[in-house]
Amino acid sequence: MLSLVVAQGDDNFPLNDDTVSPGFLGLGVVLLLGLVMVLLIRSMNKQVRKIQAPREAELIQQEWERAEAARAAKAAGAGRDAAEPAGSGPAGSGSGDSKAGDSRAGDPDRADDA
Description:
Oligomer: single chain
Order of helices and strands: HHHH
Number of helices: 4
């Protein structure tokens, strides 16, 4: 039966480039896809703008500040050790500043936990 329909279609309406075209349905589908694409791109751009990622310059500045703080802490520690000789005073008596370094011992931001 299908061959009969195809055979009748060939006689009445020959298929070539002039008679076969996408028509209005094809145009509508392409326009609809274009509109959907524009809306999706606008939505994606809006979501990307909401991201609060630090910029590279900010990361470099933070790294430099941490390094400067570590150098200052080492310099302060070296200056304090030079000012107080190692056996000058009873055991256990101190200014209490020695525990300040212990609170940062497990700090994940601190690179040199030595």
